[in-house]
Amino acid sequence: METLAIVGASLAGLSAARAARAQGFTGRLVVIGDEPHRPYDRPPLSKDFLLGAITAEDLYLESEADELQAEWLLGGGAVSLDAESHSIRLKDGQVIQADGIVIATGARARQLPALAGLSNVFSLRTLADAQALAPELLPGSRMAVVGAGFVGAEVASAAVSRGMEVTMIDTKPVPFAGQLGAEMGAVVAKLHAANGVELISSATIEDFYSCEGNVSGLRLAGGGYVAADVVVIGIGAEPNTDWLSGSGLELNPGIVCDAMGRTNIPGIVAVGDCAAWFDPAAGFHRRVEHWTGALERAALAVRALLDSDAPEQPAKPAYFWSDQHGVKIQFAGHSAGYDRLEVEAGDPQEHSFLAVYYRGDEPVAVLGMNQPRLFTKWRRSLASPARTEAPALVGAGAVS
Fold it and tell me: Which of helix, strand or coil describes residue 349?
């Protein structure tokens, strides 16, 4: 292979570039990105960066140890792909021909079309998004967060810490239930209530009021009203695959891949939020929109790209974390289909505990709040191919 092109200058793209060099690729390496920035860390955008605790320079992911010798084509991005010829057309008209392609174009924040373009309506996905939102966190102002996902919840936490009045509006009866289940979702909801966030569940927005291009309030179905100086839309993300329409790649809606990231076209793999990898344990494809997935799975996909005979290796269980109201929330695995939940240590009412999700006798996921040491043991246990017993609970009640 002489030329390897990575489309997406993200954590997944950078991880793929590092993996390629580490695995012995010495040819031309091209990294294509639509933002003008080199790869940067996204999780702090809704946490420390939003609060001004760190700067943009602190977010950048490259280090002095990186000797990638890559060509960086930034600020335009790819607009089309001919998968058969491995030709990537860029926004400026340039065409990159590659022997191997890694697609790592990520995802974009889902929008509410009715509120698009209003000056005090924000989403949070990119550095530019965070830079626009940060000055709006003013004490005494009112923020409405539409959608009780983890990004929205982190923004709500940051806003409350700045003295804002915050209301989260969610369509589901229990927030976070999709990831954590109803019981643990209710625990996180109580954490927000205890810190002054008003949560309105099972609610839909029927209309909005605006003045001079700003939203002044949201009217809910059934007659409720939420006044707002700032509105943050946090209703999930959509994979950035529109540019692949007609390319020949299978999309559904992410890029359909096998358990090593291979697409239906030889010589093309996909990683990160845009990729729907096959999960052998679940028996279906799923997108894993987490930082660790972008970091860890890139090496598997690059191995499969550079070596067509590379044996399949199992991906590690999904993992994500969130910091809300001073509480560290960590989750590993997949809770879908669990039939039993056991609190192994601590007390959910104190927001310091560890809970394990079981399907039959098999642990399939683990949730920790302010229990990083015990959580780490359980996470390792989930990743182990032979799980014979639970991690010891000695000292498990201590917050660390």
Answer: helix
Contact 120, 214 (CB under 8 A): yes
Indicate whether this model's pTM tops 0.85: yes
Q: What is the pLDDT of residues 244-293, one digit of tens each?
A: 999 999 999 899 999 999 999 999 999 999 999 998 877 889 898 888 88
φ/ψ of 60, rounded to 5, equals: -65, 140
**SS3 assignment, position 313:** coil
Residue 168 bridge partners (DSSP): 145, 199
The maximal CA–CA distance of the chain, rounded, in angstroms, is 63
Type of residue numbered 361: D
How many other C-beta atoms are found inside a 10 Å radius of the C-beta of residue 305? Answer: 27
* Residue 308, burial from CB neighbour count under 10 angstroms (0-12, 13-18, 19+): exposed
Tokens (6 digits) for 40: 């940067």
| Contact between 189 and 325 (Cβ < 8 Å) | no
CB-based burial label for 392 (10 Å; 0-12, 13-18, 19+) = exposed
Q: At residue 15, what is the residue type? A: S
CB 228 within 8 A of CB 216: yes
DSSP secondary structure letter of residue 193: H
Q: What three-state secondary structure class fits 51? A: coil
| Residue owning tokens 């909801």 | 189
DSSP H or E run through 16 = helix 11-22
